[in-house]
Amino acid sequence: MGLSYIRDRAVESYVWSNMVFYEEDLAVTRMVFAKLFVLAVIMDDIYDCHANIEECRKLHEAIQRWDESAISFLPDYMKTLYNEIMNNFKEFEDQVGVKGRYRVAQTKKEFQKLSTYYLQESEWSHQNHKPSFKEQMELSTMTAGGPLLCVCTTVGRDDTLTKEAFEWAASDTGAIRAYAKILRFMNDVAAFKAMPLYNQQKTVHHHPQEKSGKKSRRKNKGDMSSTVECYMNEHNVTSEVAIAKINSLIEDEWKTINQARFERRELLPAVHRVVNLCVCVMFFYDDKKKDAYTFSSNLRETIESLFVNPIPM
C-alpha cells in the first residue's frame, strides 16, 4: 500500500487464514480472510499510533459513511487505506457473486463496528480514562476483532453453510463472544510476557505530518493498560496472580466453545471454523512463541514447512 508507518503482517495474516481454511476449495475464503485481517491491523495501527484524536474521528466518520466521496475530508496519509478498504470490499462482492453478497454486507457492518471500538479506545486514551478490569475487558474483547473474523469465515463458502449457520456466526453471542475473549486474553498475556522484546525493538512511530514540523496532539493507545495490567492494578496483585486469573477465564470460554460443538448439528460448518480460529490463537500466542504475530521470526519454521519445503515422501 505504500504505508511505511504500519506493520507489514501480510504473511502472518495468510498463515493464520491458511490454518483456518486449509481446504483447496476454500481459496476465496482464505484470501478474503487474510486481506481483511491485514486491513483491520492497518486500521488499528492508524488509530493506535499515528492519528491524533481529530483524525481518528474523521476516519471513523468516513468508514461509517462508506462512500468514496468521504475521502475528501481525510488527511492524505489516510486516503490510501480508505481507498484500499473500498476497493477490497468491491472485490469481495465480485468474487462471491450475487448469492453471497449478503455475507459481505454483514462483514462490512462488523468492520464499521470495529472502527467504532477503535475510536472508543482512542477517546479513552485522549481523556486519560483509566478503565476498570470489566470495562477494559468488554471493550478490548471487541477491539481484538473476534466478531469480524467470525463473520468473515462465512464469506465465499458454498451452500453447505446454511443461513442458520451464517446467522449464528454473525450473532456476537455465546461461542462467538467466547472466541473474542480467548483472542483478547491470549493476546494480552502473550504481549505482557513479551514486554522485554517490545522494549528491545521499540521505535518511535511518528505521525506522518510531524516530518513537516506540524505538532501532533495524540496519545498512543499503547499507553493504555491491558487486561493483565488492569487486573493487577484493580486487585493490587502480582502479574503471576493476574495471569493465573485470566488463564482460568480462558478455560471457562473454552467450555462455551466446546458446548457449541454439541448443541446443533446444522451449525457445525460454522462452529468448526470458530474452533479453528481458537486453535490459531493458541498457536500464535503460546508460551514458547510468545506473541508470534508481532515477532514473526518465531514463525519461520512453520512458514517454511507449510509453503517452502517439499513434503517428505
UniProtKB/TrEMBL annotation:
Region (Disordered): 202-225
GO BP term (any one): terpenoid biosynthetic process
Keyword RNA-binding attached: no
Annotated Terpene synthase metal-binding domain residues: 3-194, 217-256
UniProtKB keywords: Metal-binding
A single MF term (Gene Ontology): terpene synthase activity
Pfam family, one: Terpene_synth_C
Top-level taxon of the source organism: Eukaryota
Record bears the keyword NAD: no
Protein name per UniProt: Terpene synthase metal-binding domain-containing protein
